[in-house]
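Example 3.2
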Amino acid sequence: MNWPLVMLIAFAIEAAIGWPTRLHAQIGHPVTWIGGLVSRLDHAWNKPQLDPGRNRLAGTTATVVTVLAATLPPMIIAFLLHPTFWGHLLAGALAAPLLATRSLYTHVAAVAVPLEHGQIADARAAVSQIVGRDPAQLDQSGIARASLESLAENTSDGVIAPLFWGALLGLPGIAAYKAINTLDSMIGHRSPRHEHFGWFAAKLDDLVNWPAARLTGVLIALAGGRPARCLRTMRADAPHHRSPNAGWPEAAMAASLDCRLSGPRFYQDRVAQEPWINASAPDPAPGDLLRGLGLYKRTMFLAGALLCLLAAA
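Structure, written as tokens:
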């Protein structure tokens, strides 16, 4: 199978139609299926009262079980597929739900439109759907900043990373990546319940996102038309980000739009004092979020062009 071609087909399908709402209501979504398994394993195996070593072992086992459960069916399907036109089309249709190209744009646009028209309450309600910060503490710049950070990070996690692993390892690769990413989002955070149980999931997610985060930064830099400036900002600021990966696309986004991102952020119970990215630039204005969406579309065009080259090769 020409897996870059399969990912190109999946990319086009998801960007065009996404995952239909009616279908989601009837059968859910592949990511929610994975999430359901993670939730059950978390409930059954996560015992915070155990010593850290035993709970890490339980979490590692849960991670391996989830990844295997998500990967084995695509492995069987990939083995049965024939490298014909219809085989590639079917594989692309199966891979499409594991991308978030259209849904990411839709969720950020739902913030950008009311923000541009000064409808702060609606913008806060929309931004609460994509970030975990306290929306009541966000002014116009804070809403734009949080949304741009989410857009940059999820360009990597939701689009480029699954395309990368799908082009490299086919249907099993993209399925395994989505399982790991879902595990990290559900149990990979440092809470009292998941600090040890989710340790392996978090480390594994950092590992599989390493190449895609840097590739995403480069694609954003090229799409923004300021590659040298973006690369300097990425080298200077990305290593100081709380995440080993998210700082790269965020730094490229900040430099491309000439605004600052990251910095202090308010959650329900605390304030996280994060370092600024592109600190000498001003805070993003409402219009910068619309510019960010335009940058996202150009980045997607470059990603599609890269898949075309890989498919042809």
